[in-house]
Design brief:
Strands 1-2-3-4-5-6-7-8 form an 8-stranded parallel β-sheet. It has one domain: TIM Barrel (Alpha-Beta Barrel), CATH 3.20.20. The chain is globular and about 45 Å long. The protein is 38% helix and 17% strand. It has 269 residues and is of the alpha/beta class. Helix 1 links the parallel strand 1 and strand 2.
């Protein structure tokens, strides 16, 4: 039986994939990739995400302002975001909070995040949330604000195990990347063993967060800085890692993840 695979989070528009994009797109059907949520990071890449949504059947577009880029937003960013959301059925993301980056301004990040989260709740759109070293603040925001009824995705979830139940109660799904297959990610792997199966999603985060080299099924030339470039068709390899980690038959895992994905993104086709 061929598997139906759903990527909860990638960045297909990233310039590191541009030179290989046609080859990447040709590989996706054979790799079993049915749908992928392509997340923007800032206003500059919203047009490219929109173009992909209009030309690639597997793409669900997601538009938002990532916490790394809040200082770069224009005076009209809110109106521009609404314009892109109105153009095609879309999610909102990647948005969130990040205390890991140097010289972060958490107050400004929170203001931008809350505005986008409230817009998602108003329109009942799925949200892809980035969080690094700001889990307490994130939980406060989620408790204090309206949330989309369809739920939200915690991209590459690396938060405390103790928060899983409360986040799930608020509507969270927890997305597992292949990067957690690296041995140094033992803590994150253990945390995912405690995620409710009905809240589990799988992601590549391509072109970032590549699996260990021995698990890769598709390869791309390394980026200029020497870091591995993750091929979006490695989604199947991430599923296989997840099945091993969670001690689930691969087919059962794939059926569960499809059900979870469809529940969150059903309104977007």
């Amino acid at each position: 039986m061929s598997l139906r695979l759903f990527d909860a989070h990638n960045h297909l528009q990233d310039e590191r994939l541009a030179s290989q994009r046609l080859e990447i797109l040709r590989a996706l059907p054979g790799a079993g990739v049915v749908r992928m949520v392509v997340n923007s990071s800032c206003e500059a890449d919203w047009p490219e995400v929109l173009a992909l949504a209009k030309s690639v059947p597997q793409v669900i577009p997601s538009f938002g302002c990532h916490p790394w880029y809040v200082a770069e937003r224009t005076a009209d960013w809110q109106a521009n975001l609404v314009k892109f959301l109105d153009a095609v059925p879309s999610a909102i993301g990647e948005i969130g909070l990040d205390k890991w980056i140097k010289n972060h301004n958490l107050a400004e990040q929170r203001e931008v995040f809350v505005w986008q989260l409230r817009l998602a709740a108003e329109r009942n759109l799925p949200v892809s949330i980035h969080c690094l070293e700001a889990w307490g603040t994130l939980l406060d925001v989620l408790r204090e604000n309206p949330l989309p009824r369809c739920g939200f995705v915690l991209h590459s979830f690396g938060g405390p195990r103790e928060m899983i139940a409360e986040l799930a109660r608020l509507g969270a799904c927890f997305s597992l990347p292949g990067y957690f297959a690296h041995e140094r990610k033992l803590r994150q792997r253990d945390i995912f063993k405690h995620v409710p199966r009905e809240r589990l999603l799988i992601e590549t985060d391509a072109p970032d967060q590549a699996l260990p080299a021995e698990r890769l099924e598709f390869s791309l030339p390394d980026s200029a800085n020497g870091r591995p470039v993750n091929h979006p068709a490695n989604l199947g390899a991430v599923y296989r890692f997840a099945a091993e980690l969670l001690d689930m038959p691969l087919e059962v895992l794939a059926e569960q993840v499809e059900e979870n994905f469809q529940r969150v993104f059903a309104a977007l086709g």
